[in-house]
Amino acid sequence: MKLYEFAPNPSSRRVTIFLKELGIELETVQLDVRAGENLTEEYLAKSINGKVPMLELNDGTCISETVAICRYIAQQKQNFSLFGETPVEAGLVEMWQRIVELDGLYAGFQAFRNLSGVYSDRERCVKEWGVESKRRVEEFLPKLDKQLATHPFIAGKKLSIADITGFLFVGIICLKALEIDALSDYPNITRWFEMLSQRPAFQ
Ligand SMILES: N[C@@H](CCC(=O)N[C@@H](CS)C(=O)NCC(=O)O)C(=O)O
């Protein structure tokens, strides 16, 4: 089994943190996506979305999409701790994972990609969409802060995949890529972010 990734980027790090939390190590293949190593014919023949991460199984089956990869690993190891173990936990984890991914992380990706033009060699960039997406990210932060005011972790009492998504949204997308100060005005995000930063898997 091989994990194709570009170690520094947020989607690859989501899988890496997930694996580390479960104590799993996989063989990795690094693809420099900024240099277009994910756009070769050979890679596109395996990867439906042409992005990293992608997991190639020993029988040649290829699984793209971060959460799909994490689900495969959870099923294979029969370890559902990060997806929620009771029906209620699983429902809430799924709900928050999707909210943080769609309203936070992916809005942030759209903002960064369209404003910076980092991938303008392979996609149309629309500045107005970047500006609007950045505003959506800024509007999402108070919602996240409110949830964390009454819950230690995003989906409730336990660490979950929603926290991994949220951590990369705040740490890489807000603070670094978009230079949005997601901490000063948000004490609950700050408490949660600092707590996760102490965990070995998140370092
Ligand atoms: N929905 C995908 C998104 C993956 C994604 O956006 N990967 C980026 C790096 S963070 C990538 O491969 N970018 C290169 C490109 O778009 O050509 C997932 O969750 O796996």
TrEMBL record:
Source organism, top-level taxon: Bacteria
Sorted alphabetically, the Gene Ontology BP terms of this entry are: translational elongation
- What PROSITE patterns would the database entry show? GST_CTER, GST_NTER
Matching CDD domains: GST_N_GTT2_like (cd03051)
User: Which segments constitute the GST N-terminal domain?
Assistant: 1-81
List the Gene3D superfamilies: 1.20.1050.10, Glutaredoxin
Among the GO molecular function terms of this UniProt record, one is:
transferase activity
Q: Which UniProt keywords apply?
A: Transferase
Q: Could you tell me which residue ranges the GST C-terminal domain spans?
A: 86-203
Q: Pfam families, per this entry?
A: GST_C, GST_N
What cellular component GO annotations does this protein have?
A: cytoplasm
Family as reported in the entry's similarity comment = Belongs to the GST superfamily.
Q: What is this protein called?
A: Glutathione S-transferase
Q: Which species?
A: Vibrio algicola
